[in-house]
Amino acid sequence: MILSFTADVLEADPGQALTLRWESCGGTRAVLYHLLLSGQFGNFWELPPTGEMVYEIPPEARNWEGFVLYVLDDADRQARADLTITLRCLDSWFFSPPPDSCPVTAPLVTEGAEQHFEHGVALWNRAEDRIYLLFDPNVVGAWRAFPDSWEEGQPESDPAIVPPEGLYQPIRGIGRVWREEPGIRDRLGWAVGPEVGYTTAVQRTSWFKYNETYIRALEGGVWRLGPEGSRWEYLPAGN
Fold this sequence. Notes:
By secondary structure, this protein is mainly beta. The protein is built from 2 helices and 16 strands.
């Protein structure tokens, strides 16, 4: 019943207008659905069985735009055709090789710090005012993020907490989370060295949900944080 279902381009940019065209035989009406990134049907249009329609891609769209066309006859018998348009990425990843999706934004380049512990790693960045804690063992609940609530002028550490020789009590924002959040000190243990400042970068994938976070590491690699605290891994530079 559906002879063709095409667009005037195979690839497009977010914000671009594209023309969808379809041709059918024996149908009396058509329904065109827009697919969400989740794979669910979104908006729909009731249309003639043969025709065309201009669709404006939302500027915030990423990765692809999908459409499903149904053509029906007088007996409500239907035929289906699917169409996917690849979207070009507006921004580049700050590392290579990149993930298999577009980043949701350009990299957030900002002042950061990294500190290693007996049982994990702490990462801080100023732009987000956020502290990421990566725990060993790397199991469900492998990482958590906290707002940085420490402010200049507040005590940097607790002098009543004395670490064993060769180990460190974390200071400032990381230290506050380590001291005050239940269970964090037990999970991380003592710091094995002072925190080290550097210029970091943060980017995230742009899927409907279950997105990954990528943070530039002190040594030049990347910390890859799985969705919803599920897992993390260190990707060495150039790998």
